[in-house]
Amino acid sequence: MISERAKDSFGRIFMGAARSRLPASESHSCEIVELPAGASQPQAQIVVLTISSMQFRLLLLLHFDDDASMRDYYAADASRPLTEAFMEVANLCCGAINQQLVEHFPDLGMSTPYALGSACVPHLTELKPDHVVSYDLSINGSVRIGATLCLCTKAALDFVADEAVAAESGGELELF
Question: Where are the alpha helices (DSSP H) in the chain?
Fold first, then answer.
């Protein structure tokens, strides 16, 4: 069971992290639209990251196509594949989420990002999630990314995140 306040907090934390970490420059815009329940993401590839605590497991799926706009934006130097370059950015985004959540859940662990095909997304139901929400992101008006937050709880979950989430953090490296 996850409260509406907790659902709202996870959403605000994600949006703050996405706006601060996914654009390549602070001057680039990041528009985020929540999709209707059950809406599918058309992108062909996904990067998956997990944040786990004793109370919950949060999966962050970032959906994308390996197209010219993504390559130009995230892998313009062509020194490495787009997926590798995007996983680094995805990791920064998930790290910003983790930094905000650790204020409420001190026992968090975060996975290494990994890539999957979008055919895996329908199998999220096997996890019996308590909350799934999807977003459509447009970065600088040209780059399209989908995002899915999938939350599985082990106990009742209720918290309220600060309204100014993820904005003040600089993406510092944390050592455990």
Answer: 4-21, 68-74, 82-101
